[in-house]
Write a sequence for this structure.
């Protein structure tokens, strides 16, 4: 089973948006090459909203204190705990999809 | 093949350091070291602390015995070398052993100089029982043991070591007198007045000081009872410590036929003159006529010697050291470098004395360069002075800045003197210790350390200090961070080159810059905002706006707060509002239950705690233009009431402030631009401490100050020009801001940029048009002004899908207090 979050076109290129899925907050980013990444929406440092951060092909930078997190591994570039990474894909209808089991 | 045999005589600071340097260069030697002290290698400097009881003996060891074992070094402690056979290449020790060498390093240091004062020795017993030198750990131990059971001490010698001894002894007995033969304390480093200042401070600590006092005899037959001075006075005491200077330990060298003057004579490779395989390093060596009594030069020597002997750099050469000392002498800060007194009439000397506080400072300048400085009691400027002295930097025109901080980036503290737990980055709570351990774990670039620790990533004020600590912790092995000169970290070019390339290729969007100018086209999140600002400045209306290149503040035109909500600040030009506007703001705040309404430092009204999704609605309800409280941009013009109402006002500051704000609202820059206009020099709007401040003066004139700050830095602006009309103020303001926009580094505020460029140079460009670019600057600024659009208009039509959608599960965030 999997959960559809919405159309990938709801996220502008190079930006992120937050989705509430099964009681969890997930920040989904659409990279400039069109691929998507998803990590938990809350910065482990002081709760910064990661979907508001700036991204490149590798990292998202928390807007509050500028910690960078790797979008693929979730690891912080710094001595913070990692953020959770979700496997997210785009289906044939351009919908963002997260497999449900990872949300449990 | 067997490794060449390297023998080192002397296991002190220079000897052990040289071996460390050799090991660091993978030198292939079979190393044998001899030390006549029964210990591994310790930090002799710390003996002062051991005597003063602030350091434990165990804390001063640099390399313990296991270090020698781990590195395959054969160490013979408690073994004195008595002779070198240069022909046979063998050293002989007191215990009769003979050790052959291929290369030999002599690092025997110095010993205390003990003047031949009658009574100081007892026939056949060495020193008189109560008489001590202060050089080794054993000396220190013996002194402590003996002093504890006695009451009064006399220290002979008022130099660095004597002062340290006197201070340390106070811990162990009740009365200490310092007897110094010269007219003032530390006479080799300090001039008479500095010496006198130091003396007063030392006396305040309870140490009695007698200067101009030649000791002629140590009194007492079985035990010491006092010292006798040349003028006939006697000072009663039961302990005497002699700290009258040092002499190079060169007996062995001399006895073995090596050239010895004041020390063992060496060349620029630290090779003993005329010898192919014998070197000398440290206090025992004499290089170009100089011997050194401090450790810094020894470190330089050790490096050269290691480079040379390992073949890493056979031509490495030591050129002597410029000795600058910074010490805490008996609890008093003292620093000195170069000359202590002027030498010729042309030498410019500045002195400042505040005797009550124990402060004395003097600097000596020759041909615009620092050639000497003495600081007693207040050494805050020492790091700057040492740099200026070492590197011959140009000195500030305002000479007083050599001695005092007159604003600007804060005084440089030396990393070495900071305690490990000192907080360096106050925003992210990063200590010096944390930075050092990151460096030790192998991260040796400034930016790498900043990434790992977050130090310097808050307000950024501490960045220079972070850099110095990294450099210090890496012991000069900082890896060159090429990015340091780049405008943004992800595009390998300094600003002028970057701007040229952008123009050449006609790059109008941030992604085009990455694609064209970065190898591999790699984008970099940290560079986007700086590039967006630069491109907008360069292309104005032609700039291709990509929303992801903007920081969140610039995407939603509001300032993100610690809980992820935003703040809304309506425009209020010159800080002037109307009752209708106030009412509207109040109604909107009430309607949307805004958690806090606050006046800002820039005379505006701040509605704090607004969720992102509510921004468009609030803007619509307010129906006022944006007050630009969020970007790296022109912010506000603060004004006072000026001639309109104030009884002192000589100029209409309010009207001029409004005019300035109307013209330059929202203009982007490398940093925030905060302005003020004040109606008379009473400065109620604080114009002297703004990026640009205007002050009305009598006669209808206006003064323009630039580069001021009253934020993380406090600095009074420099006077750029005095003009006759408000129009001229407006023009020069635009020209100055444009020149700043084009030339400052990303995030470099005017308070750093103006002193970097220099006010004279700015005046030439901006006021006198010496470069002939004034018209271009004016035109570029006019274009930016024309491209202005109120961002709050986006409320009606979001620029991107979900532009104002919340990113937050608000409940999880730190809750900001609601009043
Ligand atoms: C109390 C005190 C405080 C000081 N404070 C400062 C300070 O704040 N800042 C500063 O820069 N400097 C300071 N110094 C000076 C600094 O300690 C010396 O410059 C430094 O130790 C010199 O190093 P070195 O290796 O040349 O000599 P040393 O460290 O003296 O080492 C020489 C070693 O060789 C041994 N040796 C000598 N002859 C023989 C032999 N024939 N056979 C075997 N071994 C032999 C000696 O016993 C000694 O262990 C201070 C010195 C003292 C004593
Ligand atoms: S407003 Fe300024 S001083 Fe206050 S917390 Fe923020 S950065 Fe610090
Ligand atoms: S600066 Fe001068 S004119 Fe302005 S309010 Fe103060 S006293 Fe009045
Ligand atoms: S909250 Fe994300 S870095 Fe501080």
């Amino acid at each position: 089973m999997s959960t559809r979050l919405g159309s990938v076109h709801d996220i502008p290129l190079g930006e992120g948006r937050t989705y509430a899925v099964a009681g969890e907050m997930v920040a989904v980013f659409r990279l400039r090459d069109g691929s998507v990444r998803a990590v938990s929406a809350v910065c482990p440092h002081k709760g910064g909203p990661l979907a508001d951060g700036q991204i490149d092909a590798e990292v998202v930078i928390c807007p509050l204190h500028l910690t960078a997190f790797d979008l693929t591994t979730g690891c912080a570039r710094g001595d913070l705990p990692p953020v959770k990474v979700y496997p997210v894909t785009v289906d044939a209808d351009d919908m963002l999809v997260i497999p449900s089991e990872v949300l449990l | 093949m067997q490794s060449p045999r390297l023998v080192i005589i002397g296991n002190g600071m220079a000897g052990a350091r040289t071996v460390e340097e050799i090991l660091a260069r993978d030198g292939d030697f079979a190393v044998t070291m001899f030390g006549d002290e029964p210990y591994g290698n310790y930090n002799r400097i710390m003996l002062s602390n051991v005597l003063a009881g602030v350091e434990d003996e165990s804390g001063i060891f640099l390399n313990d015995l296991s270090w020698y074992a781990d590195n395959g070094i054969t160490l013979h402690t408690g073994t004195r070398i008595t002779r070198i056979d240069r022909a046979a290449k063998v050293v002989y020790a007191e215990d009769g052993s003979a050790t052959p060498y291929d290369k030999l390093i002599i690092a025997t240091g110095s010993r205390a100089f003990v003047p031949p004062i009658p009574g100081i020795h007892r026939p056949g017993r060495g020193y008189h029982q109560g008489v001590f030198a202060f050089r080794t750990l054993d000396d220190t131990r013996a002194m402590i043991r003996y002093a504890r059971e006695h009451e009064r001490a006399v220290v002979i010698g008022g130099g660095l070591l004597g002062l340290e001894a006197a201070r340390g002894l106070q811990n162990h007995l009740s009365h200490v007198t310092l007897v110094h033969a010269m007219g003032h304390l530390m006479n080799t480093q300090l001039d008479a007045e500095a010496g006198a200042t130091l003396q007063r401070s030392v006396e305040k600590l309870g140490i009695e000081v007698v200067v101009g006092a030649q000791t002629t005899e140590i009194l007492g037959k079985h035990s010491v009872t006092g010292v006798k001075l040349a003028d006939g006075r006697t000072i009663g005491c039961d302990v005497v410590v002699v700290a009258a200077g040092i002499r190079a330990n060169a007996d062995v060298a001399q006895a073995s036929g090596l050239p010895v003057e004041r020390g063992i004579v060496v060349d620029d490779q630290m090779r003993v003159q005329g010898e192919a395989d014998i070197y000398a390093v440290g206090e025992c060596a004499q290089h170009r006529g100089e011997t050194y009594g401090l450790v810094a030069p020894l470190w330089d020597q050790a490096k050269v010697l290691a480079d040379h002997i390992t073949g890493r750099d056979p031509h490495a050469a030591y050129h002597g050291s410029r000795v600058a000392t910074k010490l805490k002498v008996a609890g008093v800060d003292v620093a000195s470098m170069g000359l202590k007194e002027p030498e010729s009439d042309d030498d410019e000397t500045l002195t400042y004395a505040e005797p009550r506080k124990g402060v004395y400072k003097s600097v000596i300048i020759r041909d615009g360069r620092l050639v000497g400085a003495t600081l007693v009691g207040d050494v805050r400027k020492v790091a700057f002075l040492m740099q200026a002295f070492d590197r011959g930097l140009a000195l500030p025109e305002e000479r007083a800045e050599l001695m005092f901080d007159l604003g600007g980036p804060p005084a440089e503290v030396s990393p070495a003197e900071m305690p490990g737990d000192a907080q360096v980055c106050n925003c992210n709570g990063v200590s010096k210790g944390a930075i050092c351990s990151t460096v030790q774990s192998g991260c040796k670039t400034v930016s790498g350390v900043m990434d790992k620790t977050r130090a310097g990533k808050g307000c950024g004020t501490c960045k220079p200090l972070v850099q110095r600590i990294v450099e210090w912790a890496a012991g000069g092995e900082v890896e060159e961070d090429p990015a340091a000169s780049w405008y943004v970290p992800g595009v390998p070019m300094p600003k002028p080159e970057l701007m040229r390339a952008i123009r050449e290729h006609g790059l109008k969007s941030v992604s085009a810059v990455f694609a064209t100018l970065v190898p591999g086209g790699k984008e970099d999140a940290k560079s986007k905002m700086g590039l967006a600002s630069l491109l907008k400045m360069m292309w104005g209306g032609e700039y291709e706006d990509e929303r992801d290149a903007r920081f969140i503040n610039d995407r939603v035109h509001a300032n993100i707060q610690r809980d992820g909500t935003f703040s809304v600040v309506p425009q209020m030009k010159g800080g002037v509002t109307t009752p209708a506007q106030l009412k509207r703001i109040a109604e909107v705040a009430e309607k949307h239950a805004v958690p806090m309404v606050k006046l800002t430092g820039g005379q505006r009204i701040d509605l704090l705690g607004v969720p992102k999704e509510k921004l468009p609605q609030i803007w619509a309800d307010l129906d006022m233009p944006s007050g630009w409280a969020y970007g790296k941009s022109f912010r506000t013009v603060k004004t006072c009431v000026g001639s309109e109402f104030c009884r002192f006002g000589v100029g209409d500051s309010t009207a001029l402030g409004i005019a300035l704000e109307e013209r330059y609202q929202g203009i982007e820059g490398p940093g925030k631009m905060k302005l003020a206009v004040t109606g008379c020099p009473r400065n109620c709007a604080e114009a002297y401490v703004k990026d640009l401040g205007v002050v009305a003066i009598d006669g209808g004139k206006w003064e323009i100050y630039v580069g001021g700050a009253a934020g993380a830095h406090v600095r009074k602006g420099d006077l750029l020009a005095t003009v006759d009309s408000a129009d001229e103020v407006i023009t020069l303001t635009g020209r100055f801001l444009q020149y700043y926009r084009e030339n400052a580094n990303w995030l470099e505020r005017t308070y750093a940029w103006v002193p970097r460029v220099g006010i004279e140079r700015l005046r030439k460009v901006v006021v006198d048009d010496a470069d002939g670019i004034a018209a271009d600057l004016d035109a570029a600024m006019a274009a930016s002004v024309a491209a202005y659009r109120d961002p709050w208009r986006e409320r009606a039509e979001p620029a991107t899908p979900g532009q104002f959608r919340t990113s937050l599960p608000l409940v999880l965030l730190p809750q900001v207090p609601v009043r």
In short: The pocket of iron/sulfur cluster (ligand 3) is lined by residues B 640-642, 646, 648-649, 653, 678-680, 682-684 (CB under 6 Å). Residues 5 and 96 of chain A are 5 Å apart (CA to CA). Chain A has a mean pLDDT of 90.
